[in-house]
Amino acid sequence: SENSLESLVSIGNICRSPIAEAVFRKLVTDEKLEHKWRTDSAAVSDWNVGRSPDSRALSCLGNHGIETAHKARQITKEDFQTFDHILCMDESNLRDLNRKSNQVKDCKAKIELLGTYDPQKQLIIEDPYYGNEKDFETVYEQCLRCCKAFLEKYH
Length: 155
Prior knowledge:
Layout: E1 4-10, H1 16-30, E2 37-43, H2 55-63, H3 77-82, E3 85-88, H4 91-102, E4 110-113, H5 133-154
Parallel strand pairs: 1-2, 1-3, 3-4
Helix pairs in contact: 1-5, 2-5
């Protein structure tokens, strides 16, 4: 569609998905395509609603010159009806999202793992929450590769 829509989702919406959202938004802006995309991220759970991303996620993005003002939110029924793509980080996200989408009539979103687009074939983007800075950097690099490939496919 003219306005392709994109949503990025993970469990708590404070580590992986805000990184993916910010990375994708920067790619879209750099390519001057921001008028064609609406980018957001949301959580499957309601644990962290209203919270800013993890400070390690923010510092990782900052190291790459990317800022985000994202506040965590939970995915809604409307998300399934308005977004073209819902991309998630791991198998448990995928299961939860598919289950939620089955309860939504006229679900339009295509739900898949962001890692499906990774040229290096790393299907799962592991949660870095219990890890260290290096793990956040790994998430950033995976998100960057996947988002670039995704954008190339749908641009």
